[in-house]
Task: structure prediction
Amino acid sequence: MKDLQYEFGMVGLGVMGRNLMLNIADHDFSVIGLDLDPEKAAAVESEAGESKAVRGTTSAEEFVRALRKPRALLLLVPAGKPVDAVIASLVPLLEPGDIVIDGGNSYFPDTDRRVVELAEKGIHFFGMGISGGEKGARFGPSMMPGGNREAYERLRPVFEAIAAKVNGEPCVTYLGNGSAGNYVKMVHNGIEYGVMQLISEAYDFMKRGAGLSDEELQRVFQDWNQSELQSFLIEITGAILNQKDEVTGQYLVSVISDVARSKGTGKWTSQNAMDLQVPVPSIDMAVLMRDMSKYKEERVEAAKALPNNTLQEPINESRQELVDQVRNAFYFAMLATYAQGLAQLKVASEAYDYGLQLQDVAKIWRGGCIIRAACLTDIRAAYERKPTLPNLLLDPKIGEDLLERQGDLRHVLKMAIDRGIPMPVFMASLTYFDAYRTETLPTNLIQAQRDYFGAHTYERIDQPGTFHTQWN
Result:
């Protein structure tokens, strides 16, 4: 076994790295793992049982020596300085033509820097987003690689084998140059923020506004997962709402703190969208609401000082009618959130020369990843019909779906406003839709104001050029 040339290498044998190694071995590729912790190196061999295709080591020299050339090794270590530290330790042992892949949620400018630094040594660097969590890593994730197209051919057989499959198609493809993979994963996570917040807002409205019981809410989300809303996040919401707490006997979700954490990828999506001047209000608002959740003590004080006396306003609809309205509202807002993220990807692809094909992005998001959803089949079809589509809202089928459901979204929001129930991502999604389809926005007045106080000039609609007025 010491002389076996391993097809693939894994650096970092935590839960994700270990599961990916076992996944690779299941598909008849030999794989060697490197970790400084001897217990982790030994554990992966133990989990593999009698398989001779899996090996763990704590020696970087042994690890590199055992890989077949050109070497392909995937780093699964925390983003930031740890990635640079691992690269620095391995590069002296590597040779031109070898491929280093970062499988963490690295910020895309860091990936661009590493691509340049390693290219100077003849080494290919890939940033690859991986989505699907622990289970996905073991049985089939969605993977988003970006880097050198020719070098990708060395990786493709392994990646296509271990990826999730939808109708026989692997949920992985070459996405584009440089940091394209990390960028697509960043926007994936931004959309994830938006959809998770939408689910929580729908849950809150039906629970506090309409008075649905925990059992009724569980059935709602289970039913929704059999509809056009079918998705991983809706599926797990139904399971979460059914979980009882072993300590109190209550439903577990009712004893979980409402102070939400985040790792920053949603914020990165919003920040870069602002840099590119791409509006993504649903994602922005989802990030903001996680920030709002952290002000727990102030919210408790405000709830006493500024009581909500409108919650008990009667709702005239039947329970089923109300649930159907919320379902349509959710579908509208979810599509609008995807549209914003994909519009950002289109602009970013042009700005950063990624060469993204959005139909491919939709294809690999259909399985394995956290935002996988039935609607991605229609989204993929929209970009196949028109690859240059500037915004998903302009696709005839998507547009028709939104127009059919907008009435229910407006009605649900009116009921929420009347009862003081915040639904900011639903509202932002509707505002995005209404603003995008408004031929003349009132920003002409803003242009006039800027010229008035700062002589910033403006453009006219009846003749070319820039103009300034002495307003007084």
